Amino acid sequence: MNGEDEVVDKFRKYSDEISEKMTNGSQCKLFNDGTQNEKGILCKCKKLTRVVQAWTDDNPGRRFYGCEGQKVDHGYESCNFFQWYDVERPHGWQYLALLEARDIMRGQKEEINQMKESMRALTHERERQLESPALEELKVSREECEALKREVLVLSERSRVFRNVLISSTFGFVVVLGVMVAMGKQH
After folding, report:
1. pLDDT of residue 41
2. How far apart are alpha carbons 100 and 95 in whole angstroms?
3. Are residues 11 and 79 in the same domain?
């Protein structure tokens, strides 16, 4: 049973109690414990009520005034005001048509929820499929980058070795040349 049905059941029980009191000779005031102003019915909280539609087996499509409640710490608080908007209960073919309409609406609501869930799943799957080629491309690019970094390291090492060999060779050549010049002057 969902939250809407629970609220409607509470209101229905309250309505049945009031109807029972009314049939025992009670005044109409018991039925209408809200006050009316130019904008509509006020509940016990002195707030404007809203019209809600019941979809129970006893009162399909029947409208009633209900307290909207007020927001408190972690939810809503209500005075549980209830008064029928539609005085007569549905009956005859209208009653059956309303029950059928209620069942159709519930089925459509369930179908819509299933479609939304399918849509979410398909969207998620599509995003995964779109990510997959992009991830592959990213992996390939990363591998190429790593290979290029290794190649740069190898080339840097070779360059350093060649530079050291060149410096050593130049120094050695200068030393040998100096020795030869010094020996040539002595002779």
Report:
1. 84
2. 9
3. yes
Q: Which of 3-7, 68-72, 94-98, 156-160 is most confident?
A: 156-160
pLDDT at 75: 78
- What does the pLDDT look like over 130-156, one tens digit per residue? 777 778 888 889 999 999 999 999 999
> Does residue 59 lie in a domain region?
yes
CA distance 40 to 174: 111
Proportion of the chain above pLDDT 70, given as a percent:
79
Compute CA 12 distance to the chain's CA centroid, rounded to the nearest angstrom. Answer: 33
Q: Which of 89, 124, 142 is the last residue of a domain?
A: 89
Quick check: 108 and 87 in contact, CB under 8 A? no
